[in-house]
Amino acid sequence: MGASEGANGAAGRAGEVAAASAGGAGAGDAGCLRGEARRGVGEGAGQPESGLDWNRLWVERFGCDPESDRDNEAYWDERAASFGCHAASGAPAPGGQRADDDSRATTEPSPYAAEYLCLVGLRPGESAIDMGCGTGSIALPAAGEGHRVTACDLSDGMLARLRARARAAGVADMVDARKLSWLGDWSGLPVADVFLASRSLYSCDLRATLLAMEAHARRRCCVTVATLDSPLHDRTMLEAIGRPMPRLSEHVYLFNLLAQMGRLPEVSYIEHVKPTFGDTPQQVTAEFERDAGPMTGEERDRLARFVASRFDFDRRTPQGHPTRSYRQVVRWAFVAWDVPKRSEGVPA
Questions:
Q1: Tens digit of each residue's pLDDT (9 = 90 or more) over 295-342
Q2: Count of Cβ atoms closer than 10 Å to residue 73 Cβ
């Protein structure tokens, strides 16, 4: 039984509904939920007696190549030049500057980052690890609030821009930028109070990754992962090329595996509109194919017609992106859990 067949067949009894309804905090709510209001939402969902091995299902569905860091590094180095702290949310950068204008960087969070950090709930004086930090969309606002952040990324380009932004924002002394990836050697990574991963989780063995995160966190782990409304699943585009939507998303696997591990995962949702990436039809098409996976010749032809009819490369957004005739709404699942005390005997 493959990942899709096994997980889809058990969705009703093993967590898809529970994960989808566990948290109510999204971008439209009046502030994020905190403390006791979010605790215990994972109870009763995704228990081991479902008979499903959610780690194996994750590997079958999302399994990566352990040697893939080199390709990912090249991709993110190329993206770094136009990747800004506010670009991912589609919000204008402060003062209207270009995404790559690091000299005017601030610690002001984007709407997405503000909601994410609100849900994280860092306590005064706590430290954090930000894995997959990019140019600092989470690290800089956290540092601005007085938190020391170990910010890790596999891309030299991203880290160079992070350091420049931290200097410009006056928080260079609060941000320890390190070249380190999800698949790298974490032996030199310190232990922080909270482990953060914002839209960056990349794992060949999810259970091992979650345990490694816990080993480097004293109190709490917080990640955002894709729902079906993710940047990788543009419903309008997929319909245009004749490809079906996936039936289960990352957060369902993550939620259920955490429950099987004896954790009490909390789930909330953050929503924003995804901007267009790419300056030419060819770049936009390549970005779509990277997200959706390899395409047939017929799918590429349909995609080219779709891009030609729905995108306007002469009209640009304030961030410099091409305009399009539809909105791609992205919903991220914020999944958090408390790190078990070693004396609790919680199963790994």
A1: 999 999 999 999 999 999 999 888 788 899 998 888 999 999 999 986
A2: 18
Residue 237's alpha-carbon distances to 79, 130, 285, 302, in angstroms, are 22, 32, 10, 9
pLDDT score recorded for residue 26: 36
Give the C-alpha separation, 128 to 344, whole Å: 23
* Buried-exposed string 263-296: b where 16+ CB fall within 10 A, e elsewhere: bbbbbbbbbbebbbbbeeeeebbeebeeebeebe
Tokens 């898809």 -> residue? 16
What number of other Cβ atoms are within 10 A of residue 165's Cβ?
A: 26
Domain ranges of the chain: 3-230+248-274+333-339
Among the listed residues 18, 93, 77, 71, the one whose alpha carbon sits nearest the alpha carbon of residue 252: 18
Q: What is the pLDDT of residue 88?
A: 40
Q: Which residues share a beta bridge with 337? A: 221
- pLDDT tens, 192-250? 999 999 999 999 999 999 999 999 999 999 999 989 887 777 889 899 999 988 777 88
Backbone angles phi, psi at 242, to 5 degrees: 80, 25
Strand order in the sheet with 175-179: 175-179, 149-153, 128-131, 192-198, 217-226, 329-338, 266-273
Distance of CA 2 to the CA centre of its chain: 25
CATH number for the domain whose boundaries are 3-230+248-274+333-339? 3.40.50.150
For residue 196, count CB atoms less than 10 angstroms from its CB and return exposed for 0-12, middle for 13-18, buried for 19 or more. buried
**pTM for the model:** 0.76
